[in-house]
Amino acid sequence: MNNHQKMKAVGAYRYLAISDPESLVDLFIEKPLPAGRDLLVEVKAISVNPADLGMRQNNNYEDGSPKILGWDVAGIVEQVGPECQLFKPGDEIYYAGSVARPGGNSEFHLVDERIAGNKPKSLDFAQAAALPLTSITAWEGLFDRLGINHSAEENKNKSILIIGAAGGVGSIATQLAKLAGLTVIGTASRPESIQWSKNQGTDFTINHNSHFAAQLKDIGYETVDYIFCLNDTVQHLANMAEVITPQGKICSIVPADKASWTGSLDMDLLFSKSVTFVWELMFTRSMYQTKDMIKQHELLNELAELIDNGKLKTTLTERLDPINAKNLRAVHEKMETGRSIGKIVLENF
Predict the structure, then answer these.
(1) In terms of residue numbers, what domain contains 162?
(2) Among residues 279, 305, 335, which one ends one of the domains?
(3) 179 CB-contact burial (10 Å; exposed 0-12 / middle 13-18 / buried 19+)
């Protein structure tokens, strides 16, 4: 095979502790070709998410081929599939991709154009790569799942509690909720995470390691209209049930993973208040090829406009160069502590 048909990538052949140099390795693999509505993208920057950690740990690795992770990409369209209508070669785009396909930790990457958006013009590739997965999650969670209106007028006296406000999703969810006119109460437990979440726009912060109701009372709130749970759902359920307004709504992005159960997910706690409980997984649309898949293209474009108009800002906190196994292992290790703030991005192969 000719050399030009090969590309650099970073992948895993089996699950190993991240301290093991074999846990993520540099690879040289075949460069893919776009078909259908696929775009072939030259990857300029990538970001790491908890999804990468989960996929590295929970993948079955049975077929012997390497697992390529990475669900946050900013890059340039190199080639388009025969059925593409939204983009052309040379376009700068950003997207989160699909867990049903290889991830973006490779020099070139295929993505369905319906889940990619035009990169914000005011951001460089690294700043843009910090955004897609967390922004789609926050946007879908707030507006599709919780059904929050975009109009600030509608939300004038409404409040939302964001559990895990300093993380990737929390940082952008705070900004979007403020834009929609909500009073935002974020949870954070360390001085630096409290400061970061205030910089994103939280009106108040409380500590997720202590009783919610008492802390909310201290800032003048008996209950909150909405809760967006970005952290251990089981652990926080009793607290959430206590402080949600009757007929309020809760959205969580964290499955009640049996391995980490400190109890069970007792949904009866929400019964007397007729609470709506919804899940959000931003991969649902791409995984099931839903009829409204293109909504992710639309929301990424809308997000880019808000950023270019100065209404939202990137949540990038750290950059590493280049994209290789050594740097990716370092980022995974940092994220496994659960204490990272905002988003870490790697750029350039």
Answers:
(1) 135-279
(2) 279
(3) middle
Q: How far apart are CA 26 and CA 161, in angstroms?
A: 41
Q: Percent of the chain at pLDDT above 90?
A: 89
Number of H helices, E strands in the chain: 10, 16
- The secondary structure element, H or E, covering residue 172 is helix 168-179
Does 261 have pLDDT greater than 80? no
Which pLDDT score is estimated for 258? 54
Q: Specify whether the CB–CB gap between 85 and 114 falls below 8 A.
A: no
Residue with tokens 């834009």: 179
User: In CATH, what number is assigned to the domain containing residue 341?
Assistant: 3.90.180.10
343 φ, ψ (degrees, to nearest 5): -125, 140
Region for residue 139 given its phi and psi (left: phi exceeds 0; alpha: psi -120 to 50; beta: otherwise): alpha
Query: Parallel, antiparallel, or unpaired for β 6-12 and 67-68?
Result: antiparallel
Beta bridge pairs of residue 204: 185
Q: What is the CATH number of the domain that holds 165?
A: 3.40.50.720
Tell me phi and psi for residue 316, to 5 degrees: -60, 130
Whole-angstrom Cα distance, residue 338 to residue 188?
A: 12
pLDDT of 119: 98
Q: Is the pLDDT of residue 82 over 70?
A: yes
pLDDT value of residue 3: 47
Q: How far is it, in rounded angstroms, from Cα 14 to Cα 66?
A: 8
Strand partners, 344: 318
- The Cα 187–Cα 78 span in angstroms is 42
